[in-house]
Amino acid sequence: MTFHYYTVYGLRLRSTGAIHGLRETEPAETVDLDIIDGTMPEGLEPDSAEWIATDWLEIAEDAPAAMHDQTIRLSLDERYLQWRLKSDVAAAFALDGSHIYTVWSERMDPALRAFNLFGPALGLALRLKGVAPLHASVVDIGDRAIAVAGRSGMGKSTLAAAFERVGCSIRSDDLCVVTGQQEGFFVPAGPPRVRLLPDAAAALYGGAGGASAADSPKLQIPVRWLTTGAIPAFQRLDGVYLLTGRSRDRAINEMPRNLALFALLQNMYLRHLTNGGMRRMEMVTAGALAQRLPVFTLQTPQGHDKLKKLCREIISRHS
What we know:
8-stranded mixed beta sheet; alpha+beta; 33% strand; Rossmann fold
């Protein structure tokens, strides 16, 4: 069997299938996560009676409507968790986060498969490994990075793309893994792409590059470091900006630490899909970030033409 090796979000991946849009790395003797494409664990086909309803992982009542279309089941031997989105995708996760098995419908093209793998699938695998990622995009400003967090539709990817257009590098889009060390917090690189709605792509990139995944209104735009291959594997995190909405003028305000803690907890990736252990890890991560990093609320100005000016102002704060 031929394997494909990748590094993303600080994880060394080994996959039985090529992953759309991700550059392969040298083979590794040890990996953090195996991705087995096109099959389920032995004896655990998607509709097998060996899968049972479970409350081991809960879908929160305030979850987005689309999340309630998903099904979570546990294998009878309590070794695997199944995540299923209608008939489009079935994925089985080893509970220790070491393996993902995926079965896709034919209508899921490679770009849309990669989107679900980069986002929800790896996001859940990280949470199973005891990591609590932020729902944030990350950009490099010189030798530092900032995270732009916010709920879906707030403009994280659009603002990250605007930073890219004024000379920064996009480190990660939509999912931010933070590793804590004595000297600070560091963010590993995510997949080399940013997903934008057509109007944002046209305004910021002139419609250049990108292809829309099936059933997705967003375009995938290759970002600068894909072509140059020149960003560090990790970058030190210098601050977090929480998008709160849009207004005629921009507004940036640093949050008190106690309010920052609760705001960060509301901006954890897949926070609506959780259990007691994951909630504790979210509290640890959010508490450490709120205690040691500045956290700002950010209202962005209306109009894509004003975003570059905002980016330059934020760059000056971290230069």
